[in-house]
Every structure is written in C-alpha cells, then in structure tokens.
Amino acid sequence: MGLRILQSFVCSVPMLWCLSMLLLLYTASQRTALAATRLGGNEIDHFALLSIKAQITHDPMLITSSWNDSLHFCQWKGVLCGRRHQRVTRLNLPSYNLAGSISPAIGNLSFLRLVNLMNNSFQGEIPHEMGWLFRLRGVIPASFGNLSSLEFLSARENKLEGNIPGSIANASRLEILDLQHNKFSPGVAVDFGNLKNLSKLFLSTSGLGTGDVNDLDFISTLVNCSELVELYIGNNGFGGVLPNSIANLSTQLQHLIVGGNQISGNIPTDIGNLVSLNTLHMINNKLTGSIPTSIGKLHKFQLVAFARNKLSGEIPSSIGNLTLLTKLWLGENILQGNIPSSLGNCKGEVPVHGVFKNASVVSVSRNNKLCGGIPTFKLPKCPLDEPRKKKIKMRKQPSLASSLMNFPRKISYEKLLKATNGFSSANLIATGNFGSLYKGILHPSDQKAIAVKVLHQQSREAIKSFMAECRALRNTRHRNVIKIAVFPPIGDDQEQPRSLSFLQRLNIAIDVAFALDYLHNHCHIPVVHCDIKPSNILLDGDMTAHVGNFGIARLLQQHDIREISDGQTSSVCLRGSIGYIAPEYGMGAAVSTSGDMYSYGVLLLEMFTEKIPIDGMFKNGQNLHKYTKMALSENMIEIVDQKQLEEEEGTRTNSRTPMTMEKIHECLFLILRIGIACSEESPRDRMTVVEVSREFFLIKDKLLMRRT
Q1: pLDDT confidence band for 148 (50 / 70 / 90)
Q2: How are strands ordered across the β-sheet holding 312-313?
Q3: Which of 20, 166, 204, 351 is least enclosed by beta carbons within 10 angstroms?
C-alpha cells in the first residue's frame, strides 16, 4: 500500500522539489538491511556517495565532477561532514538540474541529518533504505497544500519540527493523515473542515499541546469530516475542555483516543451520539463530573478507559447495556456508591462469579468509596439506604491480583515438602546463584500451583537477596507481579511444554509490560526489577505471565530519581544477567526504569526470534538488537521462530479466530520494532513502558481485526 501511494505522490510533483521532505515520510517500519555493513563507517559513506553519483545520468553543471579520489569525500561539492567522526551529515544539491534516480545506497549515510534535492529532475521511486536515516530533521512545507491529488500522508515516528501547516487542509482528497510521534511546535492551527474524505487522523505524541484552554478548538472543524473513523490525539499535553462538538463528530467514528493530556471539565453528555464507537480512551487526564448515562447507547463498545481522572459520582447502570464490552478501566478516580449489577452483562473470556464475570475486564482500583462486588475484590458492603444508619468506614481496595495472593502467610515445611514431591528434580523450575525454584501443588483439591524458592543458606548474598525481594514486594499487588509464582502444566510425558504460539507470546509480552508499568509508575515507591529475563517470567495454568525473582530489585527513592535526571552515576554494585543488563550499568550509571526497558527489549527479541542474547553467533560487536534491526524488513520472516507460526496455524485451522497470517506477519514486524526501540544503547532513545503498553494495545486490536 505504501509503495502504491508513494508512486502516485511522486507523479503529482514533476520536479520532485519536495523530495527532501518525502525522505522523512518513511517510518521505521520501512527499515531494511544494508549491503555495506562490513565496511568501516567512513568507507561506507565513501561507497554510498559514489553509488549516488553513478545513478545521476545528467549533471550539466558538473557538480559531481569533484566526487573522486583526488579529494576526501567531506570536501566534495554538496557534501558536509561532522567534525568529530568525519561522517556525512548533509547532502545539499538543490536546483542543479540533476537527473537520474536515487541510489538505495543513500540509506548507508547513517549520520545524515539533512537532504536537499529539490528543484531537480530525479525520477523513479524513493528507495526504502532511507528508512534507516533516523537522524533526519525537517519540517512539513506549507506548499504541501498544493498536492490536490494527495490521498495518504504518513510522517509518523520521525523528528519533524515546526508547525503543521494550515495549508494542508487544501489537500481536499486526503483520506489518511498520520503525523504521530514527532516534535512539532505546540498548537494545531488547521481547519480540517475542507477534508471531506478524511477517515483517519493520527496526531498522538507529537508535542502539540500548549496546556491552553483553546488547545482543542480544532476538533470543531472535524465535524464536517463525515467519513472520520479514527481520531488519535493522545499524549500531547492538550489543555482545555472537551468541546461539546466532539459528540457531533462522524457517526462512523470507531476509535477516539484522547488519553495522556491535561483535559479538564466534563465528558460531553451527548457522547452517546457516536453510535459506532468501539474504543473510547481518556486515561490520564483531569476530567471531572460524572460518567454520562448516554454511554449506554454505544452498543458497539469494546473498550472504555476513563482511569486516572477525577470523575465522581456513581457508575451508571446503563453501562450494563454494553454487552460487547471487553475492557472497562475506571481506576484512580473518585467514584462512589454501589457497583451496578448490570456489569455482569459484560463479555468475558475467563468467567468467575458475581457481577464481575471477567477479572481482566473491569478495573475499579483506587476508588475508595465504591462498594459491593464479590469477595475476590474485598470491597466493603454497601451501607443500607437508611438516614440514621451509621456510615461504614471504607477499606482500601487492593488490585485484582489479590485473588492470586490468597494463600496462608505461614506454610509448614511438611506441606511444602509434600507439595513439591520432596523437592524432586522433576519439580525443579530453575536454579540460580542464590537458590533453586520448585513448582508444586499446595492444595490437591483445587490444583492451584505454587513456586517455592529454596535459598542457599550458606551464602550471605542469598540472604541479602531474599531481604531485598521482601522489601521490593512488601507493598506490591498486581496480577502480573507475584510473591507465590505459578508455572504452566507439563504433559504426562514430563517433557517440556510444547512451543508457544504467536498469540501466546504476544499475551506474555503484554503481561510483562503491564507488570513493569505497575512497578515503575503505580507503586508507592517505584520499583526497578533489574533482572528481567525469560527465567524470571513464570506462567500459570492459564498462560498468564507473572514477573518474579526480585532478589536484586531496587526501590527508586527520590534521591535516585535526582541522580538519574542529573546524569550522575551510582556506586551501587549492580548484578544482572549477561545479555540483558543495560549497557550504561556497566559504566556505573544509576539504576533506572530505562534499564528495565533495555532488558525487556532484549526479552521481546528473544521471545519472537528464539535467539538468546549470548548466542555464539553474536561476535565482533554484533548483538541480538543489531541482528534483528538489520533483518527487520527484507528478512524478517527468516529470523523469527517458525514454531510460533506453526502453532498459530494449527490453532487457526481449529477455531474461528479472525487472525490471518498476513496480520500475524504485520504484527510480528511491529513487535520486533518495539523490541529494537526498547533495547537501544542510549537510555534516552528507549521507549517507556507506557509507550510500549499503548503500542501493544494497538497491535492486538490490529491482530484481532478490532480496527478497520
């Protein structure tokens, strides 16, 4: 699709004067392997420039005549190098009447920041190898509004600056505008009313918010976009209130994402007019007032996310009309009153009893005045509606993980001995420097599995590790963070479980991301795990992943946060696992959440490629990150573990899943890209767990075809 659109785009601009901008329109999804990787950096640049020259067929001003061995390439006309590394940073060849095609070798100029080839006569396609040029900078020129035939414009995941030009509204045939993940100047001064065909507008994470009351005025101009299906404006820091006009957007609108801003005021009462809405994501704003009862009209709802706001009042019983609902996130508000029994109508995959038919569907944590529910959630009973009845003091509600932790605090050695079959080798899960981990069944009646850690008592470090784990887990309660861990059942032949399918691996990756999000962002004191790796991720019988082994975890006190932000180093002797430990730790850097994200990135790459980071194939500076990045586009299917695809194919043929192999391949690409972004060498270049969780949410929707 991208190639077809690009060709039509090039045809609409005969002289390719805007080529310098087009180079930025390739997202990281177009990155591919380079042929010259075995050469040194300067040799690569030299070779690339000669290849570019070779494909210039017309040079009337003899601009490239100086491109020969008589001069160092940094002295060639139109070429500018950085002083430190003598690598090409600018290729500036405008208005020289050059003709020919652009060599794919331009993608080897990995330090390139600026390309200016406008007002020439280049023809053909822009090579997709240019997706490697992640250092490119630029702005969207105002003259883009002259592209009257433009239907698709994607400049996502670049470092574009400046303003989004208002003239872009003149591209009247535009259907998809994707400008996510850039660094634009604050403010959206675009009147979208002329874009009658606009179906998808993606502006998330682009620095557009000013915090001003008028930040969202542009939404009213979208009312005329009757074809609008998706609107993503999250994580921009937008201020102001949601205009009532948002309820008058296209009745075809399916996905409305405004989370991660500073939006205040009420949710418009007529939000129920958006009858096709599938996803409404408003997490992490400053919304007040009550949840509108009109939400009950949105019968196609699958995800409603209002968590981390200041919403008050009761949960409207009309939510029970949303029978297709799979996720309802209401946590961290000031909701009160009885949880409506109508929530029992919500669709679920792991049924329990009572009004909550799926523990993964409903999240109401940190609403301390809510009451009702089932014992699993340990909410207080609701007070009787009697004027003189003494008000019942509300207990603080633990998270949904409390059901997993419902074990006695003290268990006798005899019970553990029996549960683990005498700590037999058949029950051994893993061994480490400080002890061994065994699986067992504590209560044969319910077959609920536990994991038992046996410390090496002769080791002083083992005792320290145990105490550190106790400190880290003292106040943690989350379904994906465990004190008592569980393990997937093993077949009768006592061999290892069969290979995990792609979907199972995806769910595990999401579970671990949720656990890290909780540890990093939602604990009273942030926790850095410091040892994320496969052997510390345990699975229960339902294939839910749980992060365990907090023996070297660190509580991130306030002084630790200051150290990290000031770029200081830590004197703490950090232990981790070779291949997973963040490179900055080896240079004495302070413990940080970005260190966990590096380990998580390596874990992701290992899960989906089945290549361990310390594999003997990684020599001479090569590693799992570089290996995956090099082959991500052209050879992606060759590097992924084929067993996951075989398992998924067998599952698909025996079920009615909407997944297709094409979708699986597409999602595999996106997942590996996340793994690469998390395992970047520089901590500043890594994704945060919040960004990862958001991307996985979108990936799973794409995989299960919950988005068009």
Answers
A1: confident
A2: 312-313, 334-338, 369-371
A3: 351
